Every structure is written in C-alpha cells, then in structure tokens.
TrEMBL record:
Residues 9-87 form the GIY-YIG domain. Residues 194-229 form the UVR domain. GO terms for molecular function: DNA binding; excinuclease ABC activity. One of its GO terms (cellular component) is cytoplasm. GO terms for biological process: nucleotide-excision repair; SOS response. The keyword DNA repair applies. The UvrABC repair system catalyzes the recognition and processing of DNA lesions. UvrC both incises the 5' and 3' sides of the lesion. The N-terminal half is responsible for the 3' incision and the C-terminal half is responsible for the 5' incision. Keywords: Cytoplasm, DNA damage, DNA excision, DNA repair, Excision nuclease, SOS response. The lineage of its organism: Bacteria, Bacteria division TA06. Interacts with UvrB in an incision complex. This is UvrABC system protein C. Residues 245-462 form the UvrC family homology region profile domain.
C-alpha cells in the first residue's frame, strides 16, 4: 500500500484495514504521520508487522486532543472491534464476579459472569472459577448471607439448617443485624478487616449493654469467623496497606499478566490473565493496555496499583484520571514491595510452564488418538502433508507441510514448482512432490505422510515412497466426506468430534493454504512482468496495480476512472492496460 493521504502530525488513533474494510489493527500515536509512516518507510525487522502491512489496503484515523485521550480511545476501539493483530485479553467476557445486591432489604450474594448497572456491588473479576467459588463458600460460612433467588422463599432452605444462612426469610434475624453481617462481608472483600472488627466489637458491646444477648451472640460468631480468616492470612506488608501488584511476562506470541491483591497488608487473591500479543509488542505497550483493561473490568480496586518501573507511568495515570478513576499507578519501592514483585513473577513463570505442559499433554492425547485410529504401533509425531495447486494446469506447485507433536513446524515447510508434469494432472504431481521431498535425507524421518485427496492420490504417494525404499505409512484425506483412505478400498470414517480427525483436517488445510499462497505469489510475479511491458508502467506501478486490485481479473474489470485514480496512471496508460487484459 502507498501512503497517498495527507496524514496529520497530531496525536490520535489509526485504524489499519484490509481490502474488504475489516479492521486489522488499531494503534495510538503522539504524531500520527510519524507513527503510520514508520510502518512503510523502512524495512521491517519484525516479520509479524511486515505480514500485517502486506494486508493493509487503507488507513483511517481519529484526531484526539492529546496522547492520553488517544490511549483511552484506542483501548475502547480495541474492545469494540477486537482486531486480529491487537493485544487482547483472552476470555475476558467469561470472568466471574461476586455480586451483593445491597439495594435489597435483605441483600443476597451470588456468583455472576455479567456486571450490569443495577445498584449492586461487584467484586472481581476472578480468572479462576474454582477460586471464585472457594471464596464464595468461605463468605457463606463466615457471614451467612443468603444465596437464594432474588425473591426470598417462604420457608427456610437447607443453608439455614446447616448454619450457612441467617434465614431472614423466616425472621430468624432482624434487618439491622443481618445488614451488619453484609457490611462485614463487603469490608472483608474490600480489605477493611481491621475496620470491620472494630465496628463489630463496638456493636456487640452495645447489644450486651442493652441486654440484646441473641443479637450480641450473632455478632460474636461473626467476629470469631473473621478473626479465624485473618489469622490464616500472612501479612506481606508491615504497613498493612491495600495495594494491587501487577506484572507481565511474555511467552511466544502471548503474554501472561499476574495480579496479587493485598488487602490490609495480606495477599487475599492471585489472578492470572492470558493475553494474545500477535505483533510481539513491547512490554510498555503491553503493560499500559493491560492496566487500562484491568481497571475497566475490575471493581472495588485499591487506591494504588504497583508495577515495575515503566517510562509511560505518567501517561497511564493521566488516562486513568481521565476515566475518573481514583487510582494511581506507582513503581515498586523498598525491599518488601520488590520481594512481593519477585514472588508474583515466580507465580507467572509457573503459570507459563503449566500452560506449556498442558498444551504438550493435549498434543500427546491427540497424537495417541491418531495412532489408535490408524492402528499404528508407534506415535506419529512427525507428520508431513502434501497438496497441489494450479490454475487450469498453469503455475502448478506442490506444498509439503510438517507438524511435530500436533503443531506446525514451519522451518520444515517446503514448496515445489512442478517440473515433470504439464497440464491438469494432480495425481502424477503428488508423486513428483512426494518423491522430491523424500530425496532429502532429513525428510525421511517422517512418521506418516498425509495427502489431500482420495484413493488415486494415495496410490501415487505410496508409489513414491516405495521407489525410495522407505516404509513410511501413507494415508489420504478426502475433503467431501472427510474419509481417510488407508488402502485402495480401505476407508476409515471418524467422528466429527474426533481429535485425530481434527488434527488431520488441520494439517490438510494448512498444506492447502501453503500451496495456494505459493501459487498466487508466482502468478503475481508473472502478472507484474506482463504489466511492465506497457509503456509508462514500471515495477512499482505494476505492483501498485496488483496490490490495489488483487488480481489481473479485477484489474480487467476496473473502469478507466478507477484505474486513473492511481498515481502515475493516466487515461492513455489505463486504455493500454484494458487492451492488454
């Protein structure tokens, strides 16, 4: 794409779009012209950004007053459009919250995945459902708040009989005493444990003084439960402050953010957030995006959030202030806080390793399922899949895609220009490609070969393997019914939900994509050469035509007016283009 628009040298947000108008990436900039031009003015060392730029056909922008507003607008637009290449929180819509319906006469407590503006208090989010449920059960046991439906039943439920609810439904507790318990639960979730105990002790003594012994006993039991909870919490900050600690670490094209929630100096929660990072953006960008998202989805946050030192802390703070949130971001300070940050990062590393092991386990299950489905006596760890692509017998190419342990091994991918076959003959082309692939010794370690097609493609691939005197199992996967050909008349049909079938479909579709991609690149190069024969069109203008319209067919369909809108294409050249095509 050529930057023809006059881009303003102002702060704002830019939206990179594909030919179909799909938003691919949203970014912010202090200077829009400088930032956008940086994608196109120099050779990109980041291959992922280069891939993004190759897909960009149009760029829009929104000018903002300053960089702070740009950061907020960028965050909101990413949330709205969810572009493929942007940093995204994974599964953020599904995080559970604890909800207390404080507007009710006798408030209830619930776990919910929706937070709506209904006057209730929300706490969270909690990234692990199990952790949210555990805390919820703890609150039930300690504060005995009702968890029944919004409308209270006419009789006591099981929770009352097993001492998990005060049963306001049958008047076992008055409104004031019940709401005192609710207030204590809120203070506990907010980290104001000391304040809660002081208030409850005062209220208990007051009830004793007026001989309200039953009410005093209820409050006494609540105090004991809170004290037991507090005694099990290890104080990490001697100042007993309430602070959230946040850190992020990267892993491949993802990142993992960890949060320690400290209330009254003790850790009361740990949350782990998985973040996609398709463009491998730097840590400062990741941190600012995550903090703004975290502040937006979280409730009952402390006044201070601690992170490692970052150059853009002031920008993040300005953005949070713009959102009217009374929270400040600070760098960790002192031995205690630095030790806590190290501990948090150790937890994040453990989570990354655990996720890696989980992926490996899932892959091993899939590989074993494939072994069983094909009745093999070994695990097919190295898989190679072949496909053919051509345009009515022209630009004929083949692809070889390799998976190891169920995942693409792109450094082993290969593509081939067909040499020995002319015209439309996919069957013999498969034989040539498999044969050429196996001519290289490093490729002979393949555990199983998959070809896209049916019985004839299978026989041709098997013949190529036999010719190399190898004993590699070969199967074919037919698209129409997703049948697996093992022999000429031996066919296996697997369940659509089978992990083995899904793996075969994945490698087949990847080999198809890789073959088509190579075929198109060859055609584009040849079409460019063809266009260059027209007087007045050089390499740059030929590429501009192909990039703008996508294919020779689309160039042929374009009107003279559309062609002459491109820089350097006058009416005479446009007529020559139409004449050639």
């Amino acid at each position: 794409m050529k930057l023809d628009k006059k881009i303003p040298e102002l702060s704002g947000v830019y939206l990179m779009k594909s030919a179909s108008g799909t938003i691919l990436y949203i970014g912010k900039a202090k200077n829009l012209k400088r930032r956008i031009s940086s994608y196109f003015d120099k050779k990109q060392e980041n291959s992922r950004i280069a891939k993004l730029v190759a897909k960009v056909k149009d760029i829009d922008w929104i000018i903002t007053e300053n960089e702070t507003e740009a950061l907020i607008l960028e965050n909101n637009l990413i949330k709205l459009h969810k572009p493929y290449y942007n940093i995204q929180l994974k599964d953020d819509k599904t995080y559970p919250y604890i909800k207390i319906t404080i507007k009710d006469k006798f408030p209830g407590m619930y776990i919910t995945r929706q937070h709506i503006d209904d006057g209730s208090l929300y706490f969270g989010p909690y990234t692990k459902v199990g952790a949210a449920q555990k805390l919820f059960n703890l609150l039930k046991h300690t504060f005995k708040i009702r968890t029944c439906n919004q409308h209270m039943p006419d009789r006591a439920c099981l929770d009352y009989h097993i001492k998990l609810c005060w049963a306001p439904c049958i008047d076992k507790i008055d409104e004031k005493t019940y709401n005192m318990s609710v207030k204590s639960a809120i203070e506990f979730l907010s980290g104001d444990i000391a304040k809660s105990l002081t208030r409850l002790n005062s209220e208990m003594k007051k009830n004793i003084s007026i001989m309200q012994f039953e009410k005093a006993a209820v409050i006494r039991d609540t105090i004991k439960s809170i004290q037991q909870l507090r005694d099990h919490q290890h104080v990490m900050l001697q100042s007993r402050k309430s602070i959230d600690f946040i850190s992020l670490l990267t892993s491949d094209s993802n990142a993992v953010a960890g949060v320690f929630r400290l209330r009254d100096g003790a850790i009361v929660g740990k949350e782990i957030y998985h973040i996609s990072n398709p463009l491998n953006e730097d840590m400062e960008t990741l941190t600012s995006h995550f903090i703004l998202r975290y502040v937006n989805i979280s409730f009952q946050l402390p006044p201070v959030i601690k992170i490692k030192r970052a150059h853009n802390i002031s920008l993040i703070n300005d953005s949070i202030a713009f959102l009217k949130k009374n929270i400040r971001i600070r760098s960790v300070y002192g031995a205690e806080e630095k030790a806590l940050m190290r501990m948090l990062e150790e937890n994040i590393r453990f989570e990354i390793e655990k996720e890696k092991q989980h992926r490996q386990f899932r892959a091993s299950i899939t590989i074993k399922a494939l072994k069983d489905a094909l009745n093999l006596n070994f695990l097919p760890k190295y898989m190679a899949c072949f496909d053919i692509s051509h345009l009515y017998g022209n630009y004929s190419v083949g692809s070889a895609v390799v998976f190891f342990n169920g995942k693409p091994l792109k450094k082993r991918y290969r593509h081939f220009r067909i040499k020995s076959i002319t015209g439309i003959n996919d069957f013999d082309m498969i034989h040539e490609v498999v044969s050429r692939y196996l001519s290289h010794k490093e490729n002979r370690k393949t555990d199983i070969i998959v070809v896209d097609g049916g019985a004839i493609q299978l026989q041709k691939a098997k013949a190529a393997v036999r010719a190399k005197r190898l004993k590699i199992p070969v199967i074919a996967l037919a698209k129409k019914l997703e049948e697996i050909y093992i022999g000429e008349k031996e066919i296996i049909s697997l369940s659509k939900t089978s992990p083995a079938l899904k793996l075969l479909q994945q490698i087949r579709d990847e080999s198809h994509r890789f073959a088509i991609s190579y075929n198109r690149s060859l055609r584009k190069n040849d079409f460019r050469f063809l266009l260059e024969q027209i007087k007045g069109i050089g390499k740059k203008r030929a590429m501009l035509l192909l990039t703008t319209f996508g294919s020779m067919e689309n160039i042929g369909k374009a009107s003279l007016k559309e062609l002459t809108q491109l820089p350097g294409i006058n009416r005479a050249i446009a007529k020559e283009i139409k004449k050639l095509i």
